[in-house]
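Priority: medium. Attachment 1 of 2:
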């Protein structure tokens, strides 16, 4: 082993000398060794245990993340929740809201601080990109900007489209060209800012639509530049008994309160790709059902069992808990110690699975 170590030491010395010579030519550090701490992948958690599992612990700083798929599946909730967690750690976040749907009370409900959130609703996509570039530059200069959310890419309208005479035929792919230029510029300068983009699916009417019937809006640039792309899809309705007036009578009927959502990792460059998971998104409450995540991951990790129509868990103290989803929602809300025990066990498994084998 000694000769190998000696050879490696020689190679390191040569690499360091070459780096120094190249940087001296440009009079700035454009070259680094790949062991530089600045190149370490740092991940921050999302508010979803399932998504953290799918992407290896969280979203990577300095990258682009795209959340796309069916409406009312929790995409914006994940984005806002991630920003709220970032603010709680003492960072500054930014939101670009071309749709104009931001709700300060909802953001506060998710744990965020609207009075500390940089908010922009520019008129055109070019202004949006300009605002994003300024925030990236401020982050490079040392401002504690950690997460910037764009909700959504689909609603971005280029200056060309704004000025276009509605009676004339629109020029093809205006937004796609703009996004290609914008992502090149943002990616070149960005160092540690996490960009979270929400997007929508569109019907593919072009060549090959029989193989890929749905595509994301804004062209293909995001699929190339994004480190993480998560697809959200509804897989089944969740109902509960409710009172409904029908034909002059009050009846007890099943009422839809949410959906089971399947999340698939269509692209992941910092962890294992093509992972998937599921949670319940409560449309009546506008949030992810926490108990459904605990149950889903607990079953996968074999710390929770299914017996009949109930889920069963034996705690480290030997106590057994058994019940349906409603029971688990109340239990996890009331028993903070038990909740922490389950979350810690699930997070430990997520950490183990994210390690490079």
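Attachment 2 of 2:
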């Amino acid at each position: 082993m000694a000769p190998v170590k000696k050879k490696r030491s020689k190679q390191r010395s040569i690499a360091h000398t070459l780096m120094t010579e190249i940087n001296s030519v440009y009079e700035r550090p454009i070259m680094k060794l790949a062991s530089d701490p600045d190149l370490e992948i740092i991940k921050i958690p999302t508010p979803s245990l399932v998504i953290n599992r799918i992407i290896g612990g969280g979203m990577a700083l300095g990258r682009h993340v795209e959340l796309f798929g069916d409406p009312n599946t929790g995409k914006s909730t994940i984005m806002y929740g991630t920003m709220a967690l970032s603010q709680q750690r003492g960072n500054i976040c930014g939101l670009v809201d071309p749709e104009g749907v931001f709700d300060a009370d909802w953001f506060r409900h998710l744990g965020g601080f609207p009075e500390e959130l940089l908010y922009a609703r520019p008129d055109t996509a070019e202004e949006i990109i300009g605002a994003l570039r300024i925030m990236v530059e401020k982050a490079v200069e040392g401002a504690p900007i950690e997460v910037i959310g764009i909700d959504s890419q689909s609603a971005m309208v280029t200056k060309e489209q704004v000025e276009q005479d509605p009676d004339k035929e629109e020029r093809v792919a205006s937004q796609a060209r703009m996004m290609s230029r914008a992502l090149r510029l943002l990616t070149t300068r960005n160092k540690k800012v996490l960009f979270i983009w929400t997007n929508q699916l569109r019907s593919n009417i072009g060549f090959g639509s029989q193989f890929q019937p749905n595509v994301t809006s804004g062209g293909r640039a995001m699929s190339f530049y994004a480190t993480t792309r998560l697809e959200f899809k509804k897989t089944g309705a969740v109902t509960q008994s409710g009172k409904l007036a029908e034909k002059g009578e009050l009846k007890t009927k099943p009422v839809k309160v949410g959906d089971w959502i399947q999340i698939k990792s269509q692209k992941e460059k910092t962890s294992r790709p093509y992972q998937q998971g599921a949670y319940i998104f409560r449309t009546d409450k506008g949030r992810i059902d926490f108990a459904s995540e605990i149950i889903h991951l607990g079953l996968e990790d074999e710390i929770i069992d299914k017996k009949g129509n109930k889920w069963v868990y034996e705690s480290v103290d030997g106590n057994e808990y058994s019940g349906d989803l409603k029971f688990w929602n109340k239990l996890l809300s009331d028993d903070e110690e038990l909740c922490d025990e389950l979350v810690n066990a699930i997070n430990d498994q997520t950490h183990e699975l994210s390690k490079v084998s």
